[in-house]
Amino acid sequence: MQAAANAIQDHMGPIETEVKPEYNHDPTGKTMKALAWFGTNDLRLIDAPVPDITQDDDVILKVTGTTVCGSDNHLKNGEIVTLQKGDILGHEFMGKVWKVGPKVTKFKEGDRVVAAFQIPCGHCEYCQKKLSSFCDNTNNSSLQNAMYGQRDAGFFGYSHFTGGFPGGQAEYVRVPRAEVALLPIPDDVPDEQALYLSDILPTSYHAVYDTGVEPGDVVGVWGMGPIGLCVAKWALLKGAKRVIGIDKVADRLAFAESRLGIETVNFTEYKDVPKRIYELVPRGLDVAIDCGTFHEPKTLLHKVQKTLMLETDVPEIVNEMIVSVRKMGRCGVIAAYSGYANGFAIGALMEKGIRFIGNGQAPVLRYWETILNDYIRTGKFDTSFVVTHRIPLDDIVPFYDIFNNRQADVEKVFIETQFSSPPSKGFPATTRVKDWVL
Prior knowledge:
Helix 13 (about 345-350) links the parallel strand 17 and strand 18. The protein has helices at about 1-10, 70-75, 125-130, 140-150, 180, 190-195, 200-210, 225-235, 250-260, 275-280, 300-305, 315-325, 345-350, 365-375, 395-405; strands at about 25, 30-40, 40-50, 50, 60-65, 85-90, 95-100, 110-115, 120, 155, 170-175, 180-185, 220, 240-245, 265, 285-290, 325-335, 355-360, 385-390, 410-415. Strands 15-14-13-16-17-18 form a six-stranded parallel sheet, with helices on both faces. The chain starts with a helix and ends in a 22-residue tail after the last strand. The chain is α/β, with parallel strands linked by helices. The chain is globular.
């Protein structure tokens, strides 16, 4: 799949963009540790050139915190197209400013900042509205343009389908359009609270906001990974009367029950999820949000279709949501889907008058100041409930296997580099993956 997708994109050629993914190398020849993709299930921690200022509005960060997102597993498994050998992964990171380009006046060396996972140009129609994930000018993927009709913004560390920008699972990272793409972090906010402003906090907030969770709603959340847990927490903060989490991993369901006090459904026990939902909520859900995954089909039919590449994605979760919500209910999709699925329940969607909402990649710039100031600094949203582990960057390769297989009760990890501060109070101490009892 990768070879074919890369060949198609090469044939079409890149679209001209304002921001270039390639970076200059530090003139001293300095190298850094970075996680790179070399093939399906072939991730390696390599020595890579440290980036230098490449365009005048760049900043180079020393990474003080990074993490692994559930969607990164799709890269590991080779399910996102146009990955190329040596691509540096990672789209959630923060750091301290090391170098600034000549056009950068907002930041200086030593400033603590967090990066949006997307790269906004700052001036297009979407960026002007702070819809940064939909920027017109930073993703050169002709393949995405052909498949979707238009393109998202460029993203860090997420294949050439999103521009081919090297990511932040590394010791240094180049941040283009830095004055737009970086958020200053106040001294009273520790790194473990700030890092997740890069993705999972705005992404989960966006899913709840965009799907329209209202006070008194009954909300179903499919997938109790970090995004699903945060969606459930935001839904409660927005006034949801009940939240029901659906997953198959018993440890994750128990975690959701104990940390958030929500109801849960294990779909290995209740194979007919809509039937179980109606037992719990006879009227049906007001809102359903997909925080799950497209790459694990439940039924033999879709396992065969996916194996034969007759579909890239699986519609089973979205079909369960469509059936489970009440008439005129709302279904939001924040889970990462990339291509095409067969058997979508379009008849139920139409007849029930359901609002089916593709939330899209979260426009981080629209939300991160609100989340920082109104929720994190006030204590209304404390990320310690979801951060379960802290590891050194040296352990990132074995960690991917643990996370992908949902082992060791992992939810969200904080990955430290040589530039990180010590663990903050209330957050996990550093441990080594080899010492975990599996």
